[in-house]
Design goal:
By secondary structure, the chain is an all-alpha fold. The protein is built from 16 helices and no strands.
């Protein structure tokens, strides 16, 4: 919800596509900066408590956005759009902590034989939120205004905090005998762990570059406003389309998990994602554009579930915080860097050529990965091994 509201509000104020790209850059800098340190503490502290306290920071950020958007507030006149970027910066810090903490906590709550199924269900639930969120954000903003929209976000964060309190903490992870000590030594160990395991490195790198060049989500407010001529309600629907496709695919994968020829399916799905982005960029039809985004969600979720399963199955539990932190830099940051790349490319190449270029780059990256990474191409999750 908040991402749709913020992007529409910012574009309404600035009418500048580069400002939408700056949203991604403002979020990714703190996220990348804190991620590796967060991974260390996730592996030595209580993961549930880390998630609760950082979620509370998101609630505070939503309070700031609500106050900023009040009709009688002088913040916009005094500070311009700076408060928006401050809250985005805080969100980036929180995401840098939450991503490794969530991933690592899942490994504690679920037995190893159920991790692939758990990753599928986790992805399904997340995408349900991703469907409902953008739709609600656009609809509430469009029909009732920005303050009710931000207030709704605030209420949902409050509910999140309450639900987190209801999870029984599994406690800290026991350190293995002979584990290295010192924060920088442990961070270095986590980085080496990823780079020494080609299956992890190849999966993370593929998704990073595909998302970096292939995503068009950051530019959706411009497509909705200037090309498809739909308002915030239409924007909310477009933002929801990828998640709708992802949910449907999640349901399918719940009954038929991608444990055979997993790497092949991952490569094909990322290739399909790139094709969807190219067709979306060239479309002037709202229905065709929505369908392309729907299919992009279908393809993307196959990749997400396989990559999540690889991380859970090929990473020792006492390393999951640090490995997930490295993954968040590869994957999580690529969303924001991709948003920045999209904004800069749209500014200098033009909106449509920039998205076509990103889609073509995605196809080239998948082709190169399939050629240079046979360990990923031949991967079958049913044959998983920690080594």
């Amino acid at each position: 919800m908040q991402s749709v509201i913020v992007s529409w509000q910012l574009y309404s104020i600035t009418k500048n596509v580069l400002s939408l790209g700056m949203i991604g850059l403002t979020e990714v800098i703190p996220q990348v900066s804190i991620a590796l340190f967060a991974g260390h503490f996730v592996d030595v502290w209580d993961r549930k408590k880390i998630i609760f306290y950082t979620t509370f920071l998101l609630l505070i950020s939503s309070v700031l956005l609500t106050i900023y958007s009040l009709p009688d507030s002088s913040m916009q006149q005094l500070y311009g759009v700076a408060p928006i970027f401050v809250t985005i910066f805080i969100t980036g810090i929180v995401r840098g902590i939450l991503m490794p903490a969530h991933t690592a906590l899942l490994g504690q709550l679920v037995t190893r034989d159920l991790l692939t199924a758990a990753s599928t269900w986790s992805s399904t639930v997340w995408h349900i939120g991703a469907v409902v969120g953008p739709a609600l954000g656009g609809l509430v903003y469009g029909f009732w205004g920005i303050v009710p929209a931000y207030s709704f976000v605030l209420i949902l964060y409050l509910i999140c905090s309450i639900l987190l309190l209801m999870i029984k903490s599994p406690g800290k992870v026991a350190l293995v005998k002979g584990a290295v000590e010192g924060i920088f030594a442990r961070i270095k160990e986590g980085i080496y762990y990823v780079f020494e395991r080609k299956i992890l490195l190849n999966a993370f790198a593929l998704d990073m570059f595909a998302v970096l060049f292939g995503g068009a989500v950051a530019m959706l407010p411009v497509f909705a406003s200037d090309i498809l001529n739909v308002g915030p309600e239409g924007l909310g629907f477009l933002r929801a389309c990828p998640a709708i496709g992802a949910i449907i695919m999640s349901v399918i994968l719940t009954f038929k998990p991608p444990v055979s020829r997993s790497g092949y399916h991952m490569l094909i799905s990322v290739f399909g994602f790139g094709v969807c982005m190219i067709v979306f960029a060239l479309s002037t039809s709202f229905i065709l554009s929505a369908f392309c985004l729907f299919l992009s969600g279908v393809f993307d979720n196959v990749s997400v579930i396989i990559r999540s399963s690889i991380l859970q199955l090929y990473t020792a539990d006492e390393m999951k915080g640090r490995v997930a932190a490295v993954n968040s830099i590869f994957i999580g940051s690529s969303n924001e860097l991709g948003a920045f790349e999209s904004g800069v490319a749209a500014r200098f190449m033009g909106l449509i050529p920039s998205v076509v270029f990103g889609g073509v780059m995605t196809l080239l990256i998948v082709s190169a990965t399939a050629w240079k990474a046979p360990v990923l191409r031949k991967l079958a999750l049913k044959d998983h091994d920690l080594h």
